[in-house]
Amino acid sequence: MTTIAKPSLTKADLTELLYDNVGVNKREAKDIVDGFFNQISETLVEGEPVRISGFGNFQLRDKAARPGRNPKTGDLIPISARRVVTFHASQKLKEAVEDPIEEV
Questions:
Q1: Which residues fall in a coiled-coil region (predicted)?
Q2: Would residue 4 count as lying in a domain?
Q3: Residues with Cβ < 8 Å from 13, sequence gap 6 or more?
Q4: d(C-alpha 1, C-alpha 51), whole Å
Q5: What is d(CA 45, CA 2) in angstroms, rounded to the nearest whole number?
Q6: Rounded distance, CA 86 to CA 38, Å?
Q7: pLDDT tens digits for 5-51?
Q8: Of 7, 24, 58, 67, which is most buried, counting CB atoms within 10 Å of its CB?
Q9: Would the pLDDT of 100 be above 80?
């Protein structure tokens, strides 16, 4: 069985889905999608985690400075301390991904 690769789901796709399924106009749908992602970004920038029930959690993690290596030369290069965003899928999302619906 050959699987056809699907393109990524984009913000424009989400806007179109809102327009088609909810019935808001395209401008309102775009504002809703942009507002949703802006709120997630602002909350993370403030240092707070974001929990979306049934989907997952976005959390901040501080990574310590550490030595790294240039893969070409092997030279040691310092990697500075930084803050990164991590995502942990909810159990519902994990189960949905593990047991996808069969497509014909």
A1: none
A2: no
A3: none
A4: 37
A5: 42
A6: 17
A7: 677 899 999 999 999 999 899 999 999 999 999 999 999 999 999 99
A8: 58
A9: no
CATH classification at residue 92: 4.10.520.10
Q: How many other C-beta atoms lie within 10 A of the C-beta of residue 29?
A: 21
**pTM value?**
0.74
CA neighbor of 85 nearest in space, from 53, 55, 66, 57: 57
CB 15 within 8 A of CB 30: yes
Residues 34 and 62 placed together within one structural domain of the fold: no
Q: Is residue 6 part of a domain?
A: no
> Is 5 inside a domain boundary?
no
Mean pLDDT of 58-87: 95
| Average pLDDT of every residue of the chain | 90
Which tokens hold the place of 3? 């699987």
**How many C-beta neighbours within 10 Å does residue 101 have?**
5
- The bridge status of strand 50-52 relative to strand 66-69 is unpaired
